[in-house]
Specification:
Layout lengths: L1 H9 L25 H22 L3 H4 L15 H18 L7 H21 L14 H15 L1 H5 L4 H13 L10 H14 L6 H13 L1 E3 L2 E2 L10 H19 L9 H22 L21 H8 L9 H16 L49 H4 L6 H5 L14
Antiparallel strand pairs: 1-2
């Protein structure tokens, strides 16, 4: 399997050879050689996307994607896994798909995956397709519809505008239909709000209460120093990474861009505040990364792997990293974390699909809602691939990250709480 994956990478051309194949360990992957870090991320994106998008484009994902459920699975309809798989993957790779077309090996790969993704979107809502996804039934569909629409929001010209009118109409109908789901007072508020923000972004009728109510509640749950609790009680986990900050920021961006209403507050001010808080949270995330790329295995949904670093990748893509986190430092730290996780064995099945686990296949770490489709949120750790290879994020000199400096007895800045 490892040799076959390497040969597939080599066939894409010189710019994609010499990469670390996920599932293999190699110290060379963390040397910081020019271009190597982006090539590594790009190969990981390919390994995540190809086994999903190729069958999805043919209406064969359900046929080929053998489901793996957590040992503590709660008994819900397991077909929700296919929407989880497709929606979460698309949310992570959308910024890269939005890059301009070119004739490079990377450009040809992007064009192929974009076309497969577009057909996948069509199949996902076509009642005649074997891969029409589970939009009715369990409320889990609301969760993953938000990743599904978030991808369309992140790459509208690449993923939304090229779709035919029938597919667009079906998607809008399914998303509006999910308003039937009773939303619990936890991070799910943001899933409902994300769908409304996407509808607003394309000029469709949207519900301002679902957006504004979610934003107000998330701000009420802010506990300080960059951390947001998920509901009434604080949980020390990575939900600020998986949901809170990425969705809060992008919903607010739509409200600002579309001049959405917000009673007794200005979306512009709320967005500026959210960015500052997200930047502070990112300072914590960067300091969590150990000298060799390890990070604390804490809390729920640990099997989402490097989705932990979605806010860092998001702010890097948006050119919103704080001054305390130079691009070369963030890139080096994220690369080390990716190598630490994806260099482990059995992250993928023999058919190329993700397994349940933190570093490799560890199904006992799954939660009661976990299946192997859930794992594709890991693609969110690759958002910085939305920046072209010529961008300063990829070309700036590599720098040691905080823990690497600290444990080599080098100078590093002290850390203090913030009051905003």
């Amino acid at each position: 399997m490892e040799r076959r994956n390497f040969m597939r990478a080599a066939a894409l051309g010189p710019s994609m050879t010499g990469l670390l194949v996920a599932g293999q360990a190699s110290g060379a992957a963390s040397t910081g050689a020019p271009g190597q870090e982006r090539a590594y991320s790009l190969n990981l994106l390919r390994q995540l996307a190809e086994p999903v998008l190729e069958p999805m484009s043919k209406g064969e994902l359900k046929k080929r994607f053998v489901l793996e459920l957590s040992p503590t699975w709660d008994g819900r309809d397991p077909s929700v896994a296919y929407l989880e798989c497709f929606g979460r993957l698309m949310s992570g790779i959308a910024p890269w798909l939005a890059l301009p077309a070119d004739d490079s090996a990377e450009g040809k790969l992007r064009q192929r995956l974009q076309q497969q993704a577009l057909q996948g979107y069509a199949n996902s809502v076509d009642p005649k397709s074997p891969d029409c996804l589970t939009w009715k039934g369990h409320g889990q569909a609301l969760v993953d519809s938000a990743y599904f629409t978030n991808a369309l929001m992140r790459a509208p010209k690449a993923l939304w505008e090229p779709l035919d009118a029938a597919t667009k109409g079906r998607i809008v109908a399914e998303i509006k239909g999910l308003r039937r789901v009773e939303v619990p007072y936890i991070n799910w508020l943001l899933f409902a709000a994300m769908n409304e923000a996407w509808l607003l972004s394309i000029g469709e009728e949207s519900d301002p209460m679902r957006m504004n109510g979610a934003i107000r509640k998330i701000n009420e749950w802010y506990v300080g120093d960059g951390w947001i609790k998920d509901g009434q009680d604080f949980h020390f986990d990575y939900y600020c990474s998986y949901v809170m900050y990425p969705m809060l920021l992008e919903i607010l961006e739509v409200l600002v861009a579309r001049k959405g209403s917000f009673w007794n507050a200005k979306p512009e001010d709320l967005l500026a505040q959210a960015i500052k808080r997200a930047q502070r949270y990112c300072e914590h995330l960067e300091r969590f990364i150990g000298p060799e790329g390890s990070y604390p295995p804490i809390g729920r949904s640990l099997t989402y792997r490097t989705a932990v670093f979605q806010p860092l990748a998001l702010l890097a893509w948006r050119k919103q990293l704080p001054a305390s986190l130079p691009e070369g430092q963030v890139r080096s730290a994220l690369h080390a974390a990716h190598v630490a996780i994806w260099g482990g064995p059995s992250n993928f099945t023999k058919d190329g699909f993700l397994t349940i686990g933190f570093r490799g296949r560890q199904p006992e770490l799954g939660d009661w809602y976990s299946n192997n489709g859930s794992m594709y949120i890991a693609a969110a750790g690759l958002l910085a691939l939305g920046l072209p290879a010529s961008d300063s994020y990829w070309t700036s000199p590599a720098q040691d990250w905080t823990q690497k400096k600290a444990f080599s007895s080098a100078r590093f800045p002290k850390d203090y709480a913030v009051s905003y």
